[in-house]
Amino acid sequence: MPNILQGRKQFMQGTRVLFSIVMSLVLLNCESKKPKSLAVVTSLGKVDQRLEEASGLVASIANPGFLWTINDSGNPPEVFLINQQGKTRLVCTLLNGRNRDWEDIAIGAGPDPHKKYIYVADIGDNWAQYELKYIYRFEEPTLHGQKEMTVTQFDTLILKLPDGKRDSETILIDPFTNDLFLISKSEESVALYTTPFPFPKDTIVLRKVTTIPFTKIVAGSISPDGTEVLLKDYDRVYYWKRSPSESLPKVFIKKPIWLPYEREPQGEAIAWSQNGNEYYTLSEGTLGRPANLFVYKIKK
Q1: Sign for the pseudo-dihedral over CA of 142, 144, 146, 149
Q2: Which of 24, 130, 195, 296 is most buried, most CB within 10 Å of its CB?
């Protein structure tokens, strides 16, 4: 009988040790998913009805405090400048442009080293049927009280993926290198593609550099100083801290931190502010009602 009791005692001790190890691992995993810091979310206001299918967001450089956004597939080739209340202040229409499926927008370097350029990414492909993707690039306009503008001069970058037709909704322009990155959307582990700056006029065959263990990535943003990176799916915002010596592929190998995010219906847009102290999100409208522009102020 003593041997049996001793065996039971050893078994229970072993079980407690195993339970302690498992719980430690669980807590460690949970710790890695905590937000980088507390963030206060605020609705800044509803965007105009014309932005009922907003997809893509970037903080303006030429117009501090404003943001650029776009509508996705089937809409006119229009780029909207909105203020901090979500109201449209300028609409830029690309002359003879086409919105097959605009999905993202970014700001980066271009032909003139003294200027900044808007990049509009016509990269969506829900049914994976298009061989080519397009990015329209034009000098960032400055608001001077005008409400409408026709953009007559813009470049068209033609992109091709090296591994076939894929849907995508995210582009990033690296402030450190000015290289362009594209992220696919629907795979179990999405793919990261790139091409170096400056971009040729011929068709650009992107290079696949790594995969990221997430799916349904619909938006991304790099802080203006290049040291903080965001990606989002429909439910979460992922955050990576980055040193100037780290390439983006190396950044995405690291485990991210989840940042605060209030889920939006069809939320497909995120952008850092120019000062890097907050990030904005925007979604499509629902049931005929315009969407809210949200800001998350980070308490660092």
Answers
A1: negative
A2: 296
Per-residue pLDDT reduced to its tens digit, 4-42: 434 444 434 443 433 333 333 333 343 344 545 567 899
Q: Which two tokens stand for residue 165?
A: 């037709």
pLDDT tens-digit map of 183-228: 999 999 999 999 999 999 999 999 999 999 999 999 999 999 999 9
User: DSSP assignment, residue 148?
Assistant: E
Q: Smallest Cα–Cα separation from 38: which of 282, 235, 258? A: 258
E strands of 140-277, at which residues? Answer: 148-151, 155-160, 168-173, 180-184, 190-195, 204-205, 207-212, 219-222, 228-232, 237-241, 257-259, 267-272
Tokens of 188: 């179990």
- Residue 26 is predicted with a pLDDT of 35
How far apart CA 101 and CA 19 sit, in angstroms, is: 51
